[in-house]
Amino acid sequence: MIRRRPDLFLLIPIVALGVALRLWHAFSAPLWLDEAYSAYAAGKGWAFLWQIVPRYETHPPFYYSLLRGWTLAFGDGRVALRSLGVAASILTLLPVWLAGRSLGRMAGSDPRWVGLAAVLLAASAPLFGDMAQQVRPYAVLIFSFATAIAALLRSAEGVAATGRLPRVAWGAYVAALALCLWLHNLGPLYAAALGLAALVLIARAGLSRREWLLFLGGHALAGLLYLPAFLILLDQAPTWIKSTWLTFRTGALEWRVAALWGVPGRVALWAALPLVLLALLACVRTGAGRRAGFALALLAVLPVATSILLSVWVTPVFIIRTMTPCGIPALLLLALGMAGQRGWLRLLAVPLGLLLVHQQIQASIAARQRPPMQDWAHALRWLAPRIRPGDMLYAYPNEGALPFSYAARDLGLTLPVRAVPTPVPSFDVPGAWYPTGSRGVVSLPKPALERIAAEPATRAVPTVWLLRLGPWAYDKGDLFARALLRDRRIVGRYRNGAIDLVGLRRAER
Known about the structure:
Layout: H1 6-23, H2 33-42, H3 46-56, H4 62-74, H5 78-91, H6 93-106, H7 111-124, H8 126-132, H9 138-162, H10 167-183, H11 187-202, H12 209-243, H13 253-260, H14 266-283, H15 287-313, H16 320-323, H17 327-339, H18 345-368, H19 376-383, E1 392-395, H20 401-411, E2 417-419, H21 446-454, H22 456-459, E3 463-469, H23 471-474, H24 479-484, E4 488-496, E5 499-506
Parallel strand pairs: 1-2, 1-3
Antiparallel strand pairs: 3-5, 4-5
Helix pairs in contact: 1-7, 2-4, 5-8, 5-9, 6-7, 6-9, 6-15, 6-17, 7-17, 7-18, 8-18, 9-10, 9-11, 10-11, 10-12, 11-15, 14-15, 14-17, 14-18, 15-17, 17-18
GO molecular function, one term: pentosyltransferase activity
Protein name: Dolichyl-phosphate-mannose-protein mannosyltransferase
Keywords: Cell membrane, Glycosyltransferase, Membrane, Transferase, Transmembrane, Transmembrane helix
């Protein structure tokens, strides 16, 4: 069996490598702010997810619902929360393998080796490992996009062979297309690219009316299912455009885009460029290969280019992590360049591919060794010996209470927390405004902050530990800290990135 199918024998250690890179340090870092939002929404119940979350969260509530179902089955601890992304990222290797095999057949190459190269590149890709460890929708979105691509390539093979869309593959494509739309507010960018790629791969003379109806009906069904999420996006977009916290930076843009395509750094780029040319040579051998190559290029480039144009003309939406699914079609093309060659070109392609994989693994190891995005555990270890009986933490803005509370739970630390003005989300607060686009997180005017500082409940707290995330956005001029300092003094301060923690002890009379 090994002599007849060496690719399957090699697949085992490659998958093991992908699993190891995704599990390494996956559960050690505390939840950062965005992850805490996911955990918070998933823990609030179905009514909250579908009635309250759409009022303040731009992303559709589908991922949070999926996460809630996962936590009901496996618990809501940090390991359980992160394991959904890890599982989705590992499962992504299956549609990548299937897509690579389809691409190899369409380009007239050996599908076994193209499929194996695709899995190797996807297993080693640094950003895929990063997204696997996030309690966010990105790993599931990557899986859905990869599944849509694999099903689309298989559907194209079926049409070329029989003139009919394979029903199972086409159904999988439509389901994955709908999932891409429901998993993220940028889902329409991925759906548009998939629709154009479907036209390139499937539209041809002689396709029967019945198959055209199936083709158009599948896309119409996905669009119809997306309609509620589209209405949520339309409702949220004006606030987000007006008050977004994001800024679009063009510095090192080419390197950031290369990284999301699975090419981390200069050496990797020098290996990838010839592989792209070799992939083009492989694609032009057959008509099906030309279709597949053009479709994959669309899928890799169009969402990225559209998000950059939106960032320039409308509002900043380009973030590397939201664009990581585009790495799937890029890596498929690189896999074809690596393993789809004939004759002496193999002697060039395989070493280049292995050099790229080596650079990916190095970048993945470096990523696993980076400090946490927000080191709440370190902040709490600093705070723990300074807490006295009766102390309370005030979180302003209110969202800071989310990651703090999860980190405190993980460390077994008990400290009463008050989110200012209310726990997330804060709706209909008089005089409040939205500095960073979320309707659930507000800044308060100076009189409101002074009233909170003067409340008997606040004055009774021996030491108020004021937690601010990004005070330059929500507490410009340190208004809340100054209001509390009227009858208190600073007894300690911790700063680390966006985390700003100040101890304000009541002056003894």
